[in-house]
Amino acid sequence: MTDLPPDNQKLYEGKAKIVYETDNPEILITYFKDDATAFNAQKKGQIANKGIVNCKVTAHLYALLEKQGMATHLIAQTSDRTLEVKRVDIVPLEVVVRNIAAGSLCKQTGLALGTPLSPPLVEFYYKNDDLGDPLLTRDRIAAMHITSSSQLDRLVDKAKTVNTVLTDFFATCDITLVDFKLEFGTDAEGSLLLADEISPDTCRLWDTAESDQSKRVMDKDRFRQDLGSVAESYQTVLKRIQSQLESDPS
Ligand code: TMP
User: Fold this and answer.
1) Pocket of ligand 1, candidates 202, 205, 218, 237: which has the most ligand atoms within 8 Å of its Cβ, to mutate?
2) What is the model's pTM?
3) How confident is the model at residue 3 (pLDDT cuts 50, 70, 90)?
4) Is 99 in the pocket of ligand 1 (CB under 6 A)?
5) What is the pLDDT of residues 122-145, one digit of tens each?
6) Which residue owns the Cα nearest ligand 1 atom 8?
7) Which of 103, 154, 193, 215 has its CA 20 to 30 A from that of 94?
8) Which stretches does DSSP call E strand in the chain?
């Protein structure tokens, strides 16, 4: 693969991405793999060209968010599978926003799949594979000294803004944004930036025109639940985003 930086610059390899250092200590390259895992890596596989889709979708959505004033770590997309990004210290929290009940929320609360959530839920999970990314409370976050209460308020505000922008944008693509996960980090100047990725791996996306549950899922749940047509669904998400951006470049 020609767009892969040299191995000696590898900083970290995760389940879906590899992070490389560059000559500039404040700039990193993230490389998007086709590897897919679920249930804390108990299920493993590959989704053809997922890395390309997730890289492009992330670049499109971050550009859209930047236009709305949301600071992200993205500098530029440098190839089909690579983004040049600002180095940040990741806050070890997964910030999940839910508009419609699905996934672990249904499992843990008994809420029926598809129940609308108004106002949307904003939840925090601890980024720790050994502990299985547990759900946290504000008091637990304080006790663990993960981040301050005021920083947590800023994370919630930013997550809600991302939700408003992306819910409206996906609606124009005939896609319902069910829920999604965000990560944030602080840069060298101490600014809080949206980081990591926003893609069909990290969002639940339902085809708005489809009511059959096994058909409407367009995201990683197709892989998690063995629903088939996984790679095709990822491509459809990218195509709808691209054609919407082409038809309305504002
Ligand atoms: P959940 O319902 O399994 O808690 O997932 C909520 C959202 O977070 C869903 O859009 C998928 C996303 N997510 C990730 O991006 N990474 C993860 O490790 C998990 C568990 C969920």
Assistant:
1) 202
2) 0.97
3) low
4) no
5) 999 999 999 999 999 999 999 999
6) 181
7) 215
8) 10-13, 17-21, 27-32, 35-38, 43-46, 74-79, 82-86, 89-90, 93-100, 116-126, 135-136, 175-186, 192-195, 203-207
